[in-house]
Design goal:
15 helices, alpha+beta, Multidrug efflux transporter AcrB transmembrane fold, Alpha-Beta Plaits
């Protein structure tokens, strides 16, 4: 029973490995064939497959150069926008003291481009006139209302002093004429640079709706959070805002005024527009007085549009305004050739490890090769799953991490095998040596792998974005290495130790006690080393020398003591 128990345990563990592998492949198969979002090939980062590059030029209100702190803050907010769109491995850097360069792997979709390019400070402006319906604040869509056409006068002076931002006194004859003539499709009409304390003519992102807006009453700094969710009663998608103390007070005053306009049927002056980069991203109606700083925006939303609006509102408070200098699709900076070089380097590393293993450990080296092969399969499918679920993309730095992990993985097996050989030199049987060697090796390996994982975590947190891929793949493969060591390598050794080839200590197995220099059968019974050299010459001398070198200091002293006892006994017999 004692002999068969490790065998049953080994088969159970290997069956578990098969089930885990099947589960991982099943998960990725669901992503490929059911959800249509995964792939059987890892997603590549910008440096390997190319992508989209957008260059944004920063501008301050007074035209002065932005400070480095402003530029860094703006880059951080833009990174939040990119991450919110689900894009991974994006490279966002500052350049030349004024520009922010955004590089996205693959071809960025239109929604992601709009999120990045909508980089001006968010403004809250009341609607004075509009030519199309809009979304609502927890209510129905507004009515279509156009501002009355002005007469031939081009007076640019208000007829009266405006009392608030919704007052029609802001609308001069000139402004009314501009509103009527404004063409949303004309690229020369750029409203993004209009002063905040003056009215604004702007369009929605589709260019189908045109708005005449009053001065800015709030900015995006008033918003502390914006989330997309469902209405508990109707189940419709909506956007929930949370404002800070100043924003809550100001929005309470605005909502009171606009709600009164709604009650007086002053459409569309009961609407409030969110303006980002000169575009009206939403213009909901005010359906009540909101004093708690938590307004909800409802309308014709689905999950994607609600999430996109929430992201725009949440990350819209940039300290700078930006103009898009360029938006291009770029080729891979390293490309297919560099990827092939990396793969060749990995294959060379694998080949060297395999050759070294077979030379040093003979047939036992095949266990190292098989373990690395199993690890490669698991790593590959896990990377595919991470690309689907977390948006992970494999960069050249990540490929380097995979290559380095080959050496770390082989190191674990070498520690284990050397422990087994040490046990064999102590005179133990091969089955006992496998179990005892496992007990001694796993502690060493767990400690060393813990240090590797800690280093990878610290590197991932503190390093530049270009190095994070290296740290991630290194940490991932280290965890898989420990998993393979426990659930594959040791069970395989338990089974091999009971075969005739390995368990019998064949000279080509790598577990031959005599070739390893085992000099005693147990800790109390030493193997006698012949000193005769006649007929055997230098070969026996080398064997004796090897045996002597394999002995520890304690073993040598005991052997010398035994040899002394034999000499004394022989001498006494001669005297007699």
């Amino acid at each position: 029973m004692a002999t068969s128990s490790p065998v049953r345990h080994a088969w159970r563990v290997l069956l578990g490995l098969v089930l885990v592998t099947g589960l991982l492949f099943g998960i990725n198969a669901l992503g490929v064939y059911v959800f249509k979002q995964s792939s059987w090939a890892p997603e590549l980062a910008l440096d390997l497959q190319g992508g989209t590059q957008i260059v944004l030029s920063a501008e301050t209100e007074d035209g002065a150069a932005p400070s480095s702190e402003q530029l860094d803050q703006a880059a951080a907010i833009i990174r939040q926008r990119v991450d919110a769109s689900g894009v991974a491995e994006a490279d966002i850097t500052t350049e030349g003291g004024r520009n922010i360069v955004v590089q996205i792997p693959g071809v960025a979709d239109q929604q992601t481009r709009e999120r990045i390019q909508s980089s001006a400070q968010l403004q809250f402006r009341p609607v004075l006139a509009t030519t199309a319906g809009t979304n609502t604040f927890v209510g129905e869509d507004g009515n279509e209302t156009a501002f009355p056409a002005p007469d031939d006068s081009v007076n640019d002076t208000p007829t009266a002093e405006p009392t608030d931002a919704s007052d029609l006194s802001w609308v001069t004859d000139k402004l009314a004429a501009e509103f009527q003539a404004y063409d949303c499709a004309n690229p020369e009409n750029d409203p993004s640079r209009a002063p905040q304390d003056e009215p604004l003519v702007a369009c929605d992102p589709t260019g189908q709706a045109k708005y005449l807006l009053g001065p800015t009453e709030l900015t995006g700094t008033a918003i502390t959070d914006a989330t997309a969710g469902r209405d508990p009663q109707s189940g419709a998608w909506l956007v929930q805002l949370t404002m800070n103390a100043d924003g809550t007070e100001a929005f309470g005053e605005v909502s009171t005024r606009l709600n009164q306009n709604r009650l007086e049927n002053l459409t569309p002056r009961d609407q409030f527009a969110f303006v980002l980069d000169g575009s009206v991203i939403s213009a909901p109606r005010m359906n009540g007085q909101i004093l708690d700083g938590r307004p909800s925006i409802s309308g014709d939303f689905d999950q994607d549009s609600a999430t996109a609006l929430a992201d725009q509102l949440k990350f819209g408070a940039l300290p700078l305004s930006f103009t898009v200098q360029s938006s291009d699709t770029i080729s891979a900076t390293l490309g297919t050739q560099q990827l092939q070089i990396g793969l060749i380097a990995g294959l060379i590393g694998l080949a060297l490890v395999a050759i070294y293993s077979l030379i040093v450990y003979r047939a036992l080296g095949s266990v190292i090769i098989a373990s690395i092969a199993v690890m490669a399969v698991l790593t590959y499918v896990i990377i595919c799953i991470l690309a689907w679920r977390l948006g992970f993309r494999l960069s050249l730095a990540g490929v380097a991490g995979l290559i380095v992990s080959i050496g770390f993985t082989a190191d674990s097996f070498i520690v284990y095998f050397e422990r087994i050989r040490d046990e064999l030199r102590d005179g133990k049987s091969i089955t006992s040596a496998v179990e005892d060697g496992w007990g001694r090796a796993k502690r060493t390996i767990y400690i060393s792998k813990s240090i590797n994982i800690l280093a990878a975590v610290v590197l991932y947190i503190l390093a530049d974005a270009t190095v994070k891929g290296f740290a991630f793949t290194l940490g991932l493969t280290t965890l898989i290495d420990v998993f393979i060591f426990v659930i594959f390598t040791h069970p395989v050794m338990q089974l091999l130790a009971r075969t005739k080839f390995f368990g019998g200590g064949h000279k080509l197995s790598g577990l031959d006690p005599e070739s390893l220099g085992a000099v005693y059968r147990s800790r109390s019974q030493f193997r006698q080393v012949s000193t005769a050299t006649a007929g055997r010459g230098a070969k026996n001398a080398r064997s004796r020398g090897e045996a002597d070198r394999r002995q520890t200091i304690a073993e040598r002293k005991r052997a010398e003591a035994l040899a002394g006892d034999r000499s004394t006994s022989t001498g006494s017999e001669g005297d007699a």
